[in-house]
Structures are given as C-alpha cells and as structure tokens.
Amino acid sequence: MLDKLLKIDRRIIFSIIGIVVIIAILFPMGLVVHVSEPVEKIYREIESLSPDSYVFLSFDYDPASMAELDPLALAVIRHCFRKDLKIVSLGLWPQGVLLGQANLEIAAEEYGKEYGIDFANLGYKTGGIVVISGISTNLRDIFPQDYIGNNVDSLPMLDGINNLDPFKLIITFSAGDPGVRHWVMIAQARYGKKIGLGSTAVQAPAFYPYLQANQLVGLAGGMKGAAEYEQLIKIPGLATAGMDAQSLAHLVIVLFIIFGNVIFLLKKRSSSS
Amino acid sequence: MILLFLIASFSISAYDTPNDAGSSITLKFSSSLPFISGEVMRKNSDGEFERMASICSSDSSWMDNFTVDGVEYFYKIVLTTEEGIVTSETVSAVSSPQWFHKGRTIMLVMVILVCGFILFFIREARGGKELYVRPIAGIEALDEAVGRATELGRPIMFITGIMDMDDLQTIAGITILRRVAKKAAEYEAQVLVPTSRSLVMTAAQETVKEAYYDAGRPDIFNPDNIFYLTDDQFGFAAGCDGIMVREKPGAIFFMGSFYAESLILAETGHSTGAIQIAGTAMPSQLPFFVTACDYTLIGEEFFAASAYLSRDPLQLGSLKGQDWGKLIFFALIVVGTVLMTFGITVIRNILMVR
Amino acid sequence: MKRQIPLLITFIVGIVMVVQYFIPRQPFAGLFDTFNQWFLIIAVFALILGLMNLVRLHVQKLRRMKGGWGYSIILLCGLVGTIFTGALWGIGTGSPFNYVFVNIQQPMGATMFALLAFFIASASFRAFRARNLDATLLLVAAVLVMIGRVTIGALIWNKLPHIAEWIMSYPNMAGQRAIMIGIALGTVSYSLRVILGIERTYLGGE
Asked: Which residue of C has its CA nearest to A69?
C-alpha cells in the first residue's frame, strides 16, 4: 500500500494541479504581492529617467515563454509610456518581434503614443551577440529597415540615433540564448550600458550573481516578477491575476512533497521494525 | 555673479576613450546645481560649434564615437538652468586607438596562468607521468546504459542540446556521442540523434558514421537515424518527446546545452522507463536533470568526460592543469574575502576587469 | 590532409579570437564580429541541408506509408504554408502569417512550456525525499523557496518572502558561483584541448 502511494501515477498529480489552477483562475482570491528589491530596482531606474529619454527593449523570447514574459513586457512598456520615454525595440528571437509589437501597440493605444514618433520596432536579425555588437557601434548598418520594412531614416524618433549611446537603459525580456548573457557581455561590459532583466522563473536564479556584481540594474523573474511590477505601476494585469493560480500550484506541490515524505518515513519505519 | 557661481560649480573634462579602437572621445562632467536641459557642443580647430547630443541631470559622461583619430576636437556644454543659460569652459582632446586593453591585464595574467598550468601538465603527461582522475559515476554508467538498451532490444537516443556548433557544450556532447555510438555499434544497436540545428546534424552524422566504421560495423549504420527536427526550442522538445513515446528508447543521453525544455525531455524520458544520463554546463538546468535522470554530469564533469573516456594522457594532463587553476581561484576567494571583511580592497581592485 | 586542414583552421582561429580580446585596435577589434558573421553565413546554408533532410525523411515516410505518416502530411503542409504566407503577404499585423503565428504557433508553444508546471510537480514529488541530512536540507530549502516566492507565502508568515530571498541571494548564489567557476575553468581547459588539436573527436577522428 505504502509502495503504491509512493509510486502514485503522475497523471493524478497532473490532474490535481490542473484542477487547482483552473479553480484559482475562475475564483481569484486577490492575494497581495510582496515587491522584492531586484524588481523595484528596475522600476526605480525607469522612474529616474527624464521625459523623452530613450529606452531600448529587447524581446528575446517566444510564444512558449510569453505567459511569463508578456505581462512583464507590457507593464514595463506602460511604465515607459507613462513617463513619456521613447522606446526602441528589437527581437533577438524571431518570434519576439511580433510579441513585443503586440504589447507596444496595446500600451501605445492607452497612452496615445504613435509609431515612429514615440516607439519603433527594428525587428529581428539573426546572430544574437553579433547583432548587439553591431548596433552598439552602428545601428543603421544592422537595421536599415524596421520590422515591417520601413526605412529607419523615415522614422522621426530615430533621427540622430546611430548606436546605443543615447539609450539610458536597456531591458531584455529573456528566455534563454541569445539574450541577457549577450547583452551583458557586449552592451554592459564593453559599452557600460545599464541592463535590466526580465527573465523566466526557471533561469532567474542563475542571474543573481550578475545582479550582485552590478552587471544588471535589476531583475524581475517569472510571473511573480511581472506581478510585482504591475503592483509598482499600480496597473494590475495578467500576472497579478495569475499569482493566485501560481500560489496555489506551489502550495499543492509542497503538499505533495510533504505527503511523499510522510509515506516515505512510514515505510522506512515499518521496514526497520 | 550667479552665472559665475554656476560656471564654477560645473566641471568638464575630455579625454581619449581608453582601451578602444580609436574614433572616440569621452566627456566627463558634473554639476552640483540642477539644470533643465543640456547640450553637448563640438567643433574641430577650424570649424564652428555644432550640437552633438542632449544630456539630462542624471548623466555624468558622454561618449563621442564619431571622431577622426589624430584630429583635435573642442567641446563645451550649454546648460539651461532656472537662472538662465550657462556655458561650460571649452575642453579639447584627440582620439587614438590602443594596442592593449589595460583594463583586461588581470584577465591576461589569469589566462596565461591557467593555460600555463594546463600546458605544463600536458607536458608532464606526455613524459609518461601517471595522473589520477577521480571516478565519475555518470561517465562510468555510459557503457552500462548502452548495454541495457541493447538487452531490452530498444534503440538509444542521444540529444546534443538545442544550441549550435559554436557552443562548446555541443562539441563536448558530440565527443561523448562518438563513444556512445561506437559502443552501440559493437552491440549492433541503433542510435537515434534528433538535432535542433542543421550544422549539428551534419557533425553528428559524420561522428556516428566514423564510430560505426571504427567498430567494424559500417553495414548497420543508418544515416537517417541522425536527423534535423526544428530550430524552435519547444517544437524540438515536442518532437523529441514524441520519439521517446513512440520508439521507447532503452537509454537516453542529454549531453549539451539545454534550457527550459530540459525537464520536459527528462520527465518524458523517465516515464518511458529509459535509463537516463545527462551532462550540461547550464547551472539553471542542473536541478532538473539531477531530479529526473539516473546520472548527471555537472558542469566541468561534462567537459572532463572525453578526457576520462579516452584515458589519453594529454587530455588527462589538461584536467590536472584545470584543477590547479581552480586552486588559485580558491586561494584568491579566501584571501579576498578575509581582506574585504577588514575593509582592505586591494585584491578586489587588482581583479576587477574593466 | 583531410584532418590536418580543419585542425589548422581551428588553431589559427582559436588563437586569433583569444588575442583579439586583448587588442582593441583594428583589425583585431572587428575580428570577433567578422568570425561570428562567417559562422552565421555557414549556418544559414546548413539550414538548407537541415530542411532538405527533414523534407526527404517525411516524403520517404509518406511513400512507404510508415506508421504516423499522417503527421508527415501536417508537417509538410505547415512548412510550405508558413513559408508562402510569409513570402507573399509579409509578416505585419493582420497578415495571414501573423494569423498563423497568433492562433497556432503561440498557443502551441505556450502549451509546451506550460507542461513544465505539471512535470515540476511530478519530479518534485519523486525527488524531494528526506533520505539523509543533505537531502533533508535540500527539501527544506526547496519548500521555503517554493512557498516564499509566491504571494501566499507572505500570508502564511510575513517573514517567508525574506527567507526565500535570502536563500536565493546567499546559499543559492554561492552554489551557482561555485558551479560557474568550475564550468568556466572546464571551458578554458576544453577550449585549449580543441585549439591545440588534442581533442579532435568532433571532427570525426579519435
């Protein structure tokens, strides 16, 4: 019996997790989000910028990780537009371009911002680190056109913007490589740019050393990071809504772990006796 | 009088940007009084001042990346304050390229030191010195896993990660693939190698083919077993999961660079009952592999695998040199931590790479 | 000769890449980007090889009516369809390509990633057992971080988020750094073996 419980069919675990998540989404509890220091640092960095300052956003993720990174990207874009900052973006991942553009358009509509004047999307170029290195010295060499083929010279906001120099802050929404590692290696290490990171929860722990070494100005990990950011800008969104589900899912996993250990200890005791 | 005071409280300096390829001058400035807006102006010896950039109160430096080396440029900053327009003094500088990046001196010293140790021990090994390498369970289990898959009459699956051949982990994975394929050929087993990059597919095809030839079984080598799936991360994970479920491999090897797909692959593999061995240098994925696989080669063990497997004295020598390098880092960490605790920053300052 | 030339290229490129890191002036300054661009060009041509391999295998599967041939039809249609919609009507908002991206690619990708939540649950249940002192410490840390990192943690005990943050910032970071230093040294050692031609298995040679 104890053996059976220890080797419980994983489909039972999957079903319970699924049910709990659905219930939490259908009946939100509205749990309060605790804002952590690394997330607040990104917020403070954007707050310190004066209107019309340029911010660079890199959408280095794909639909698979959009559940975690899309809400954060939207919250950061909203914050930037609210502060009247100018946004230039690109995607080191091909699918990141359209995901980023969708978020830019949502926020642009809310704040009355116009494409080409307040924000621009350069699109995707293969190469990762080579692209970053290229735009650090000559942006137009790498991106003569934006994501839909407009000549970048026709976009008023890019007038006089030839490299990463005018950008006060770079934020990468990164789900892997190419991504934050390369931004730090080139833009931060070589050109001294400030880098903020929005990361998937899975890889966030690996970037804490970068944060402590001041190679990153802030770090928002996973949906939790996004929810914290939404709290900071006081615009609750998808991440805040997802927090209840995530909380309960974590709780269920912990309960399973406790359950597994109780059975394990009982089995150990019965076999020793 | 107020303006004079403002000028006095605003300092500016210009200098050739250090450690660069030339064509760049850095401007440093500081103001103790707030200003509304500021503009950087530039001219060369026979021209007029032109506006180059605007600055805000949080800025303290600006880099001019459009200079001609050897030409003297003059700079001034014009500030708009609540009291009026303030112009800084004019400063000048000449840009030039450098032959050596001084900020990376310590890095060069470290590279020479670590490479020196490695080359020294490679020489020692070449001279016939016996070198001990501690047993690594994951590597010793490679043959056992191949054997078990053969006993079960099932194929072996080998995944070299999702990165391209420019990633050292992929190369390390291909190296281990060679050993696994050779063993599989000896046992007349088939090795399935789905890849997410075309170049990896080409390299893997060549490696497996050579392994089957080495084992004297070119007749059972099937190039169609090494195939390209997709560059898309989770598309690749879905494809591999499908193969695991359909083909039910007896042994699965994850050797290379993995990201969030690691657990999706390893858990599916676990559910098929395959013996699983993973090796990666991705710190964030290690916990997942440790949880779901039978053996995991952690970071440097993964890179050491080929040396361990080949028992080539030259390769083993490089491992020994690597260990000495680690000893130096360990000593620096201990000494640095103790000194920093007492507020002495000398080690930190020496080791800082700019 | 077949093996000597690639080894020579590896040696020269390897040494040049190390040297360029320490010499900021031209022509060394641009070498890193140049070599990476060459790699990309080669990789793009290799992509054609990969595509040909993919198409060949699935056409073969269809011809022989091997098990799962229906999936091959879907794959080939998807491949050709996506290429054509992108090439004919562009990728902007409202284009057929964008429609495929938003309505097929996005949900499928998100579904695969979402599987992680379920797999983490089953893997945690299996792996976190208090077998000995080390495993118990791991178990306790995992539970504290799992609960402390979500909003319900603060509700249970308001110190939990701080404890989770402390675990992430200190013990976790110490471990991460130790592994990273080991990996970095392993990388240096392995690179040196590749550059010097001691490690040549990846070229197809022993």
From this structure: C110
Q: Which two tokens stand for residue B330?
A: 């360990």
Residue C132: count other Cβ atoms within 10 Å of its Cβ.
Answer: 9
Q: Which of B55, B233, B280 to mutate to test the interface with A (most CBs of A within 10 A)?
A: B233
- When pLDDT is averaged across residues A214-226 and rounded to a whole number, the result is 92
Distance (Å, rounded) from C-alpha B15 to C-alpha B10? 17
pLDDT at position B8, please?
Answer: 53
Query: Residue B200 has what pLDDT?
Result: 94
- Tell me: the pLDDT tens digits for C76-130? 999 999 999 989 988 777 889 888 888 888 888 888 888 888 998 998 888 888 8
Contact C187, B318 (CB under 8 A): no
- Give the Cα separation of B197 and B163 in Å (integer): 7
In this predicted model, what pLDDT tens digit does every residue of B314-329 receive, in sequence order? Answer: 888 888 888 888 899 8
Strand order across the beta sheet in which B61-64 lies? B10-16, B25-31, B61-64
- Token duo for residue B81: 């304050």
In the three-class reduction of DSSP (H, G, I as helix; E, B as strand; rest coil), residue A87 is classed as strand
Sign of CA dihedral B184, B185, B190, B191: positive
Neighbours of C10 (CB within 10 A): 18
Using CA atoms, how far residue A5 sits from A269, A271, C22, C117, C134, in Å, is 15, 15, 60, 21, 24
Q: What is the pTM of this model?
A: 0.83
Each residue of B74-94: pLDDT tens digit?
999 988 888 788 888 899 999
- Max distance between CA atoms of chain B, in angstroms, equals 95
The two three-digit tokens of residue A94, written as one number:
């091909």
Check CB contact under 8 Å for C112 and B197: no
Residues 82-101 of chain C with CB under 8 A from chain A are 90-93, 98, 101
C-beta atoms of B284 and A49 within 8 A? no
- Residue B280, phi then psi, degrees to nearest 5: -155, 160
Identify the burial level of B112 via C-beta atoms within 10 angstroms of its C-beta, where 0-12 means exposed, 13-18 middle and 19 or more buried. Answer: exposed
Determine which of A17, A44, A50 to mutate to test the interface with B (most B C-beta atoms within 10 Å). A50
Q: Which SS3 state, helix, strand or coil, does residue A249 take?
A: helix
Number of Cβ within 10 Å of residue C194's Cβ equals 22
In whole angstroms, give the CA distance from residue B202 to residue B209: 11
pLDDT band with cut points at 50, 70 and 90 for residue B1:
very low
Cβ of B284 within 8 Å of Cβ of A50? The answer is no
Contact C151 A244 (CB under 8 A): yes
Q: What is the pLDDT of residues C123-173, one digit of tens each?
A: 888 888 888 898 899 899 999 998 988 888 888 898 998 899 899 888 888
Domains of chain B: 2-94 (2.60.40.10), 102-129+313-351 (no CATH), 137-310 (3.40.50)
Q: Note whether B284 contacts A205, CB cutoff 8 Å.
A: yes
Chain B CB contacts of A168 below 8 Å: 56, 58
Domain ranges in chain C are 1-89, 128-206
pLDDT bucket at A192, cuts 50 / 70 / 90:
confident
Distance from CA of C102 to the nearest CA of B (A): 16
With an 8 Å Cβ cutoff, is B286 touching chain C? yes
